[in-house]
């Protein structure tokens, strides 16, 4: 009979999330993950099955603790007319206010989309679902801001704003001002 688990798996996923977010799946060594989580290799494998299992748990933690709380005001019932503007302003601030901290590493899932791990069926599904969730939240925020806009106008603006958010999350790693400009253009699209 094995020893009882003496650690919190969600806390381990959270700390591993930050390693994966900074270094990517491929760049995160098992040694770094052990150090960050305080777990040894056998505990990681016993709890998560593999490094990939730990990554999957870290992605779920990212969605639950980072993404969904940020999107919640956009999908609230009812969403306020300022929710989408507030979201974009908060995002811009997080990306640009302090380049040494904040969202300097962009988005865990956007980063993963450009890495070999994206070929994994579970990971590619998580990335696609995240993008759809982001798009739906942006659309809800735009509808709350402009209830008189036609469905086609909301859909087009949502496509553009979602693409600009993904661009901002991508560019922040190499060009912080460009990430800020992407947020500014998204705000202009919403107010057009």
From TrEMBL:
The keyword DNA-binding applies. It comes from the Bacteria. Pfam families: TetR_N. Residues 29-48 bind DNA. PROSITE patterns: HTH_TETR_2. Keywords: DNA-binding, Transcription, Transcription regulation. Residues 6-66 form the HTH tetR-type domain. GO terms for molecular function: DNA binding. PANTHER family: HTH-TYPE TRANSCRIPTIONAL REGULATOR YJDC, TRANSCRIPTIONAL REGULATORY PROTEIN. This is Transcriptional regulator, TetR family. It comes from Jonesia denitrificans (strain ATCC 14870 / DSM 20603 / BCRC 15368 / CIP 55.134 / JCM 11481 / NBRC 15587 / NCTC 10816 / Prevot 55134). The lineage of its organism: Bacteria, Bacillati, Actinomycetota, Actinomycetes, Micrococcales.
């Amino acid at each position: 009979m094995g020893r009882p688990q003496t650690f919190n798996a969600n806390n381990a996923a959270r700390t591993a999330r930050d390693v994966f977010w900074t270094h990517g799946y491929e760049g995160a060594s098992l040694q770094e993950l052990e150090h960050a989580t305080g777990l040894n290799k056998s505990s990681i494998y016993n709890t998560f099955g593999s490094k990939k299992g730990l990554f999957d748990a870290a992605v779920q933690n990212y969605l639950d603790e980072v993404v969904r709380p940020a999107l919640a005001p956009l999908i609230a019932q009812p969403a306020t007319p300022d929710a989408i503007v507030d979201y974009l302003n908060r995002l811009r601030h997080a990306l640009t206010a302090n380049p040494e901290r904040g969202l300097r590493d962009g988005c865990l899932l956007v980063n993963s989309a450009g890495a070999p791990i994206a070929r994994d069926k579970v990971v590619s599904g998580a990335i696609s679902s995240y993008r759809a969730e982001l798009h739906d939240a942006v659309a809800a925020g735009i509808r709350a801001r402009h209830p008189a806009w036609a469905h086609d106008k909301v859909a087009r603006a949502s496509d553009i704003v979602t693409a600009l958010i993904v661009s901002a999350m991508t560019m922040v790693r190499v060009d912080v001002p460009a990430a800020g400009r992407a947020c500014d253009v998204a705000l202009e699209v919403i107010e057009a």
